């Protein structure tokens, strides 16, 4: 057993049973740590993307790091196309449009890390008319529920 000196502030613990789960038409986002869950300085969430999911075109105002745990995806980042699978990591820069396509049979599972307060938006300020209720509208920039 180790003892933490009183001058050191201990970290926090987030039980898996307390993880915040947000379901969207494309899958489930599970908050692992965030400013409001564990008092973290970053937002960390798990993405369980449904098989065949086609994500919306969007961008974030900060860098995101994605690591794929299982399944596979195609990521369109700016003008480039990447095929990703288990063990792959992508660093997605701020203010670059991206869209993800999940494997048609298996979907994918990934873990994402972003700065606290990361805001998502529609590049060019144009909303997808079929976007879910949680997506930003027009020129709106918002912190996704799973990153709060």
UniProtKB/TrEMBL annotation:
Family annotation (InterPro entries): AraC-bd, RmlC-like_jellyroll, RmlC_Cupin_sf
Gene3D superfamilies from the UniProt entry: Jelly Rolls
GO molecular function: dioxygenase activity; DNA binding
Keyword list, A-Z: Dioxygenase, DNA-binding, Oxidoreductase
Source taxon at top rank: Bacteria
AraC-type arabinose-binding/dimerisation domain ranges (all copies): 56-109
Entry keyword annotation includes Oxidoreductase: yes
GO BP annotations, alphabetical order: regulation of DNA-templated transcription
Name of the protein this chain belongs to: Quercetin dioxygenase-like cupin family protein
Lineage, top ranks: Bacteria, Bacillati, Actinomycetota, Actinomycetes, Streptosporangiales
């Amino acid at each position: 057993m180790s003892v933490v000196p009183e001058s050191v502030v201990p970290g926090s613990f987030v039980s898996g049973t307390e993880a915040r789960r947000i379901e969207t038409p494309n899958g489930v986002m599970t908050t692992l740590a965030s400013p409001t869950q564990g008092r973290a300085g970053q937002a960390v969430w798990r993405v369980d993307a449904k098989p065949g999911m086609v994500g919306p075109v969007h961008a974030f105002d900060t860098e995101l790091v994605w690591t794929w745990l299982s399944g596979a995806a195609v990521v369109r980042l700016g003008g480039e196309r990447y095929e990703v699978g288990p063990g792959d990591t992508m660093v997605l820069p701020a203010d670059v449009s991206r869209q993800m396509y999940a494997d048609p049979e298996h979907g994918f599972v990934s873990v994402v890390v972003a700065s606290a307060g990361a805001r998502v938006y529609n590049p060019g300020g144009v909303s997808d008319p079929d976007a879910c209720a949680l997506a930003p509208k027009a020129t709106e920039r918002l912190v996704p529920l799973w990153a709060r």
